[in-house]
Amino acid sequence: MGRLPFFLFRALTVEAGIGCVKLKVGVAATSAAEIERIAAVRAAIGPGPRLRLDANAAWDVATATAIIGAAERYGLDLVEQPVAAGDLAGMAAVRAAVRTPIAADEAVGGPAQARRVISAGAADVLVLKPMMAGGLRRGRAIIALAQAAGMQTIVTTTIDSGVGVAAALHLAATLPAPPPACGLATGTLLAGDLLVQPVIIRNGAIRLPVQPGLGVRLDERQLARYAGEWRQIAAERT
Fold first, then answer.
1. Predicted local distance difference test score (pLDDT) of residue 2
2. Can 60 be counted among the known catalytic residues?
3. Is 129 designated active site?
4. Among this protein's residues, is 160 annotated catalytic?
5. Strand pairing partners for 128?
6. pTM to 2 decimals?
């Protein structure tokens, strides 16, 4: 990544009041190149904002331990899913070898998977996606399990539409105080979020809607537009 992408990265995050940035890792050709990317992002955002890494299960235990250990000088807040989701023993080994908190993401689906992560001592933090957990009630069950184990939970989206973001926002609002930074600033990654009034981030925060239910209203014009495209795709496949 060159200077222009990192300049835009800062403009879209830190200068918008977002105080926690997540960098996708596990994509560079070498460990040295991975460290270089991490260093470049820290330089771009400055020393203040928290920096999280998300490896999406890309590394083995030795690689994860080496890269995280080398990158800790850049002030890491946590590292998500450094090794395969099914390798809980490997996650526990990485966790024991580094100072940075380890978060379980793909390893956490519903409450049963969360229990296994907790029992294995595989993580310090659980990443909760309501769509993967099976809804808000099951999400609340995961939060309760983590709280009983003295662990933190972070709520994120699966790059959902505005309805999914709103649901995740309400779930995040139930987290124990002080609330952690949650991964809900994903609406701008979509061409449209299907809402009349998009979920807006101001000064790095999202306010809970005051309207009934999830507090959002569907935009019928967007629904007609995108539903029409899906109907056309379905018709072409039949």
1. 41
2. no
3. yes
4. no
5. 155
6. 0.88
pLDDT at residue 207, rounded to an integer: 87
Residues of the chain with pLDDT under 50: 1-4, 7-8, 11
Name the catalytic one among 77, 129, 160, 193.
129
The one catalytic residue in 22, 34, 77, 80 is 80
Q: Where are the beta strands (DSSP E) in the chain?
A: 20-24, 50-54, 76-80, 102-104, 125-128, 152-155
In DSSP notation, 120-172 reads: HT--SEEEE-HHHHTSHHHHHHHHHHHHHTT-EEEEB-SS--HHHHHHHHHHH
Cα–Cα distance for residue pair 231/238, rounded to 1 Å: 11
CA 152 from chain centre, in angstroms, equals: 14
The residues that bridge with 20 in the sheet, in sequence order, are 50
Annotated catalytic, 22? no
- Determine which one of 54, 77, 87, 160 is catalytic: 54
> What strands lie across the sheet with 76-80, from one edge to the other?
20-24, 50-54, 76-80, 102-104, 125-128, 152-155
